[in-house]
Design brief:
The chain is mainly β. 5% of the residues lie in helices and 42% in strands.
């Protein structure tokens, strides 16, 4: 079984995930752009029971473009957002793919808020498009 570790920039907060993600997506919503400081958020969703969290985290709750809220776990030392739990998806933990620091992590197979995607971004062939 695949085991992956994600961590914040300073390494104090880490998550160990067992198995493959159930979804890998790119989100182009305005909230994800602000949260990441990038053109989109890239995240992997895992079943909650497949994720072990080590270290201290603080929580930030925000309402997304969809109207539902998400609870973001970030490191109190370096400020890196590592994971979150979305309202209505309590059975899952979503992890920022960049926190895995794996160059070969699977690409997104879902593009969320694709109507807000920057024109220069090309999603992988066969990616499901959700506006």
């Amino acid at each position: 079984m695949i085991r992956r570790t994600a961590s914040c920039d300073c390494g104090q907060l880490s998550l160990t995930c067992e198995g493959d993600p159930v979804r890998v997506s790119a989100c182009h919503c305005l909230c994800c752009r602000r949260r990441t400081g990038s053109a989109f958020g890239w995240q992997a969703r895992f079943p909650r029971e497949a994720v072990a969290i080590q270290g201290e985290s603080r929580e930030y709750v925000r309402q997304g473009d969809s109207g539902s809220s998400a609870r973001f776990g970030f490191c109190p030392n370096c400020g890196s957002t590592v994971y979150w739990r979305a309202e209505g998806l309590e059975a899952f933990v979503t992890i920022a793919v960049g926190a895995f620091a794996e160059p070969d992590f699977p690409p997104p197979w879902v593009s969320v808020y694709d109507d807000r995607r920057s024109g220069w971004i090309r999603m992988p062939e066969g990616c499901e498009i959700l506006d």
